[in-house]
Amino acid sequence: MPPSTPRLVVPIDLKKKPWEQTLPLHNRWHPEIPPVAEVKDGEFSRVEMVYRTGGSIEDDDSALDVKTVDLSAVHYLSGLIRVMDKEGIPAKPGDLLKVEICNLGPLPGDEWDFTATFDRENGGCYLTDHFPSATKAIWYCEGIYAYSPHIPGEIIRGRMEYLTPMGPTPFHVNPIFNIGPVEPRFSEWLVFEGISVDKGGRQHYLDPTIAYRLAVLNAIDYLSKFGYSKE
């Protein structure tokens, strides 16, 4: 059995900026980015991360930080992590890696998150014409629940994710979500997602019809793995 305490392979100091961390972070998957840590086959390990903006958003009632956030330096990621087999040989392109995610959660002392809309003059969003100003709502995490003092009465229930992309693999994996274990629970569901890019690779920028079509195709492809015909 694995040890009860995971080995910390990528530590994060919340008091430091992303570029001041002990192990360097990155902001994209690319084969030229070297690993900063390694784990062994079957090892129970822990990876800590910063938020996508690197701590530039504050836990307060003001949306000024959202309005002025530097969007040229975002999407901070931990890693890369080299995986070694029992003989000490690193995984290579084409190998199948099975990763069991035992737990996900905020770092101690940082149990909060936010939702926001960016300002028209700094990033904007697909509803900028309707909501041109920056807004922010803070959410506090308590177990699998999250609540916001800025959105009274709203409680978000956590959920588990399966088959999400985790690295520069030679194959593509679509997210499949298992609905969180919170009542009322009517049945078991898998939710398939689609993006608004057509089969020719053209980006249609949040076109729900194209996204829905791709979600259906993803569901069909998934079911076909169990012997069902695609018809």
Automatic annotation (TrEMBL):
Protein known as: Formamidase
Alphabetical list of Pfam families matching this protein: FmdA_AmdA
Source species: Hevea brasiliensis (Para rubber tree)
InterPro entries in the cross-refs: FmdA_AmdA
SUPFAM superfamilies: Acetamidase/Formamidase-like (SSF141130)
Matches recorded under Gene3D superfamilies: Acetamidase/Formamidase-like domains
Annotated TM spans: none
MF GO annotations: hydrolase activity, acting on carbon-nitrogen (but not peptide) bonds, in linear amides
Phylogenetic placement of the source organism: Eukaryota, Viridiplantae, Streptophyta, Embryophyta, Tracheophyta
